[in-house]
Model the fold of this input.
Amino acid sequence: MPVSLLGAAEIRALAAELDVTPTKKLGQNFVVDANTVRKIVHVAEVAEGDRVVEVGPGLGSLTLAILEAGATVTAVEIDHRLARRLPATAAAHGVSDGALTVVDADALRVTELPGDPSVLVANLPYNVSVPVLLHFLETFPALSRGVVMVQAEVGERLAAPPGSKAYGAPSVKAAWYGPWRLAGTVSRQVFWPVPNVDSVLVGFRRDPVPRGSDDERRATFRIVDAAFGQRRKMLRQALAGVLGGSAAEASAVLESVGIAPTARGEELFVDDFVRIARAL
Done:
């Protein structure tokens, strides 16, 4: 039996059955349009046999679309009511035994994932989207690619190149793992409740060779945070606290790796920050 998707009326009925009211606290906005979830799966290039992890499956709209494509899904859900109900919803919509595994947990605290997923596909809660992405990329090196739906402003930051207005610490930290791209827009009207922000799809592919060790990543991220914590200041001032304690010492480190002490963080690529970290 083919997998069938949820419709808007069934989503509202499920929410009423579970006494679930979408909350801003959990960043819940349920997708009620089947074409939209199929679009996300298509953009993510989900194929039969893929092992997918989904964060925040909610009532199961996107989950069923991923399963419809023939993938297996590990779904991480923080709301206990939704986590308990999702397997029954999947079974009622034609999902075969073993295709869906539900992890009832806070995504920011998950350190193990059954099924060893290699693809991330999710409608991420807007209030924790960047921390969740960085946690999953750090914790699960088997994740090789993914597409997530996030608030438009967040997606623009993740995919921003150096020198652009949106470029900041999230841009650099995301780029540590590989290239990111904006992959489409999503209408507000496909959500329940309708959010007061626009949404985009953003995709990534992990570089086949890691950019550095865990220690180098942590050191790089400390420098990134310092650079963008005072983004209007020149690097010799913004990085003084992490590069020796004075502007003169910071300048010497920066010059040793070919970076102008008068530059600002928004001008640097991720590999520039890595060079600074390695100089320490």
User: Anything to note?
Assistant: The mean pLDDT is 94.
